[in-house]
Amino acid sequence: MTYPMSRQRRLDPPDELFDDPAPVRPLTFADGHVGWLVRGHAAGRAVLSDPRFSTEPDLQHPLVASRHLPKGRVPPGFFLRMDAPDHTHYRRLLTGHFTVRRMNQLQPRIEEIAATCLDDMERAGPPADLVRDFALPIPSLVICELLGVPYEDRENFQSESARLLRLDSSPGEMESAVDDLVKYFHTLIARKRVEPANDLLTGLIGGGELEDDEIAGMGFLLLVAGHETTANMLALGTFALLEHPEQLALVRDDPAVIDNAVEELLRYLSIIHVGPTRTAVEDVVIEGTTIRAGECVALSIPAANRDPSRFADPCALDVRQPAGSHLSFGHGIHQCLGQQLARIEMRVAYPALLRRFPSLRLAIPAEEVPMRADMSIYGVHSLRVTW
């Protein structure tokens, strides 16, 4: 089989992921390489935590024909595509900036940003595009302030991010987007050497351990990851709640449910639409299947997060159901560095939105909501709502 992309129902993974219950199945990649699809939860955790599986781009095969940068085009410092010890070196420099304590200190500012967005929505009146007016501004402004990126530059970096994430972007378009974002960060770095500030980029510059190329690559990674994923979770999560009004009422009316609701929405929606991928550097046995050195493995996070051997009634959205150990933030050394920030943004944003507008509803039929099936991160392109 090839990697399943077409979703028969908007909030559910492709049906083909569940045609065969085997946790590891043969898969033909876009370039003809025959590797493996991992769809089981335990198998996914095993692959993501095993150092015998590499994330180095030179070893990878594309899942989708255009989703493959030319070799060597991953910028220095872009540690998502590095193995230990290089990955360990870069991540260590950032860990202290993303502790639970430091993220909790940001909560009042996140609440302020969310309230401002809601004030603007209320002042403008319905209908509104929840992506443009709420879901995208909150994480974009938060990550900009954390990194030290001017928010007024958002149209540029959001459009470049979209080029990187579109499934139909050519390798040349992706390469151009990478170059443009790296150049942008070089400009910021030069500015901060002259005018330092209390932000992460200034801290990395002052640490003296990194070259500018490395800081630019790290900043590029954090900026794109820091706004795209959470923005899509906020919008798609709201869509899911509007389609499940009994669950929406729980999130709106019961403050005790929000922590688990966030985890359940992360599990149920699983917005990583394509990949991640790993390549075996030696023979590895996963769930009884031998994966040979050089073979590439694609993980389906949506399938793993709906594995009935791990989750009770996995295809139901139940914000009271314990959803711990989902793989939406990954697992192992590449587990999402900013996961605590994303959680806080969602814990703040969902209740704030639903309590400000208790009659919130779709302004168009659900089947007309434009879905991001054309992007590597799933979600909605826009979400027209009224109240």
UniProtKB/TrEMBL annotation:
Keywords: Heme, Iron, Metal-binding, Monooxygenase, Oxidoreductase. InterPro entries: Cyt_P450, Cyt_P450_B, Cyt_P450_CS, Cyt_P450_sf. Pfam families: p450. PANTHER family: CYTOCHROME P450 YJIB-RELATED, P450, PUTATIVE (EUROFUNG)-RELATED. Belongs to the cytochrome P450 family. This is Cytochrome P450. It comes from Nonomuraea recticatena.
